[in-house]
Amino acid sequence: MKLELNKVTKKYKEKVALHDISCTFTNGVYGLLGPNGAGKTTLLRILADVLKPTNGTITFNEQNIYKLDYKYRDLLGYLPQDCGFYPNFTAHRYLQYIAALKGLPKQQVEQKIDEMLAVVHLTPYKKVKIRKFSGGMKQRLGIAQSLLNDPKLLLLDEPTAGLDPKERIRFRNLISELAQERIILLSTHITTDIEAIASEIIILKDGQLLEQNKPDKLLEKLQQQVWHVSLPATQLNELYKRHIVGHIHQKGNDIEARVIATKQPSDDAILQTPRLEDIYLYYFGDVMDKQEVNNDDQT
């Protein structure tokens, strides 16, 4: 299977949400990585045929998706950020409703519902109304509905929001199992969600595609640039001014920090093995600073 985007652009009046996005996807897991406002959700909504692009073409196995029409939509599984659950439906009734919308053969519906509830560990809550579900349970139900029609193209927008650590590990394992026969696009700003399972990572910023590459190739960019630094707490602000600073840990009057710098930031700085969260900081550290300023302005 092959999904191709050629110069896909989406404009909202004066705002350009996506600008000339061109990329190719085959079987596997692709992580869409970027901060809020990067264009991840817009891209997924276009691929889910919820939005139409302003310009550009999208093909699936070399056929235009809009000419494929319902044949393309039959291949889709989509988990939006907000599923829009009916609170008085039970989990079972909700999946029956989704199965009807997706046109699943009636003789298969109950078996598929039971399979999906088992996959997301909601079988004991089959007859419980959704209004009684926790946020994590609703998210698991959303994952179940996205898989109900055995999709060949699975689009997941922040799928681990609300999941506890154990559920997130289960989810990642499930996605790894599904990926061999599917194209899976997973949008997130949480690097650990994709670090272990993504075959490639797509980095979006301000609606533009900065990079599409394998995780190990991305990490090569930061070889010899990630450092462990120890310094007095009074020098932390100066460190922020000079370098990209990740995790910090206070030990008495001192600070231990993970720093991204092209040159050794101090004489006792020790090189570290790059991680995907370092890549995130490398590309989006300035965006995070702006968001923090905006948040401060609102409080």
UniProtKB/TrEMBL annotation:
Record bears the keyword Calcium: no
Ranges for domain ABC transporter: 3-231
Superkingdom, natural source: Bacteria
GO molecular function: ATP binding
Pfam families with a match to the protein in the record: ABC_tran
UniProt keyword terms in alphabetical order: ATP-binding, Nucleotide-binding, Transport
Family: Belongs to the ABC transporter superfamily.
PANTHER family: ABC TRANSPORTER, ATP-BINDING PROTEIN
Protein name (Swiss-Prot/TrEMBL): ATP-binding cassette domain-containing protein
Source species taxonomy: Bacteria, Bacillati, Bacillota, Bacilli, Bacillales
